[in-house]
Specification:
binds 1-O-pyrophosphono-5-O-phosphono-alpha-D-ribofuranose, alpha/beta, 185 residues, 34% strand, 3 helices, 9 strands, 3-stranded antiparallel β-sheet
Length: 185
């Protein structure tokens, strides 16, 4: 997330999902994915930048026997304004062709749903053998378009979160826990 839409105030960070809880859930997701993709050599597509830590942890828990591969992509689904442009811009495209591949799109968080919607359309048009979605976090209270999340870590309330890859104005991505920000005063 690029901004909070509020002026800077004093705040404290409370752990919402701690590192151990994240570790256990990521291992659980990886086990599920490893079972579903036996013999398929899936390609994990991490959406930059927020997914980089989640994907790094997820891929290390995937059964090496299924031969997982990784690539990255970055899009902006919002133009200058806040409305979805409907014509998402690809800032960084994949370097691996996905025709005939079993692809899993990996996001840190699903908020309005516009990013997944755009990615499913863009990558779906390239004729992968299958296309699924995986997200660490989902905020259903913020959804504007319905999108399938095939593998989901945690459902959370509509409150501002940062850490474990998620940012506020590019800061706090390196925090090992998902924290929520509480304004003081
Ligand atoms: C965040 C997040 C998703 C998207 C989800 O990315 O990583 O890609 O927003 O929101 P949506 O469901 O409303 O589309 P952001 O644009 O903040 O970029 P970042 O990953 O580089 O932080």
């Amino acid at each position: 997330m690029s901004h909070m839409g509020t002026e800077t105030k004093d705040f404290r960070q409370e752990v919402l999902i701690g590192r151990e809880e994240i570790r256990e859930r990521v291992a659980g997701l990886a086990k599920e994915i490893s079972a579903d993709y036996k013999g398929k050599k899936p390609l994990f597509v991490g959406i930059l930048k927020g997914s980089f830590i989640f994907l790094a942890d997820l891929i290390r828990e995937i059964d090496p026997g299924i031969g997982p591969q990784v690539d990255f992509m970055e899009i902006s689904s919002y133009g200058a304004g806040k409305e979805s442009s409907g014509q998402p811009k690809i800032n960084k495209d994949l370097s691996i062709p996905i025709g005939g591949r079993d692809v899993i799109i990996v996001e840190d968080i699903v908020d309005t749903g516009y990013s997944f919607k755009a990615l499913l359309a863009i990558l779906g048009s390239r004729r992968p053998a299958s296309l699924k979605t995986c997200a660490l976090l989902s905020k259903p209270g913020r959804r504007e378009v319905e999108v399938p999340i095939d593998y989901l870590g945690f459902t959370i309330k509509d409150e501002w979160v940062e850490g474990y890859g998620l940012d506020t104005d590019q800061d706090y991505r390196g925090l090992p826990d998902v924290v929520c920000r509480k304004e003081i005063g």
